[in-house]
Design goal:
With about 210 residues, the protein is of the alpha+beta class. The chain contains 4 helices and 10 strands; from the N terminus they run βββαβαββαβαβββ. Helices cover about 15% and strands about 20% of the residues. Strands 4-10-3-5-6 form a 5-stranded mixed β-sheet. It has a 3-stranded antiparallel β-sheet with strand order 7-8-9, with no helix packed on it.
Length: about 210
């Protein structure tokens, strides 16, 4: 994955353009890092709530990842965090573990961290291109247990019912299930890579905790 520029194109972070004036011979270096963990992102595109199935949203995730250059060669490495009565998001994640955002910041290590111990290290507010989407409601249809919520837009076939929504600014639980709203408004979705199994151990924070009750 692209990690940033160096040399005469030195900029901070991977999502900055580099502009140079060619008034003399220059050298620009594009740096890449081996991707050892799964990526997770919120989609850059909102989708209608009646695509027909959870698998249809998987296809949308893979299309976005392929266009961004972060998919596998087969174009099948991503699943949507979308559940229906016949297909839960957690089951489609298979044995994957260790998720980071596209800027390398950690999200969570295991499925059990998401669903049992509620241990997440950040929020899913970056899309596949690195753009930030702060505090938006996204389609999930998935309770904090990882199973389908009662509200799934009638298994993603109707825009006249309701959907369980998560929040891109949400921490434990709220990232996947914070609100319920009608299905008539297209919304973004979460996309999880599923093929890598490396343990994710984020650096330990040194400060004190603070939260709102």
């Amino acid at each position: 994955v692209f990690s940033g520029w160096a040399g005469d194109c030195s900029t901070a972070g991977p999502f900055h353009d580099c502009t140079v004036s060619l008034t003399a011979p220059l050298t620009a270096t594009a740096n890449f890092l081996a991707l050892t963990h799964n990526l997770v992102f919120v989609s850059s595109t909102p989708f209608a709530a009646n695509l027909g199935s959870a698998a249809a949203y998987d296809s949308q995730c893979n299309s976005l990842a392929t266009a961004a250059g972060i998919n596998n060669a087969a174009g099948t490495d991503y699943v949507a965090w979308i559940s229906s009565s016949s297909s839960s998001a957690t089951s489609r994640l298979s044995s994957g573990r260790g998720w980071i955002l596209v800027d390398g910041s950690p999200f969570t290590d295991q499925k059990s961290s998401l669903l049992a111990s509620n241990k997440v290290f950040g929020v899913i507010d970056l899309d596949e291109t690195g753009a930030r989407h702060s505090s938006e409601m996204v389609l999930t249809g998935t309770d904090s247990s990882g199973t389908a919520a009662p509200q799934t837009c009638t298994d993603w076939t109707s825009t006249s019912t309701s959907a369980a929504l998560g929040d891109t600014a949400g921490g434990p639980v709220a990232w996947t299930r914070l609100w319920t709203a009608g299905c008539g408004t297209p919304r973004r979705i979460y996309c999880f890579g599923k093929s890598r199994t490396a343990i994710l151990t984020p650096p330990v924070a040194s400060g004190k905790m603070i939260w709102i009750s």
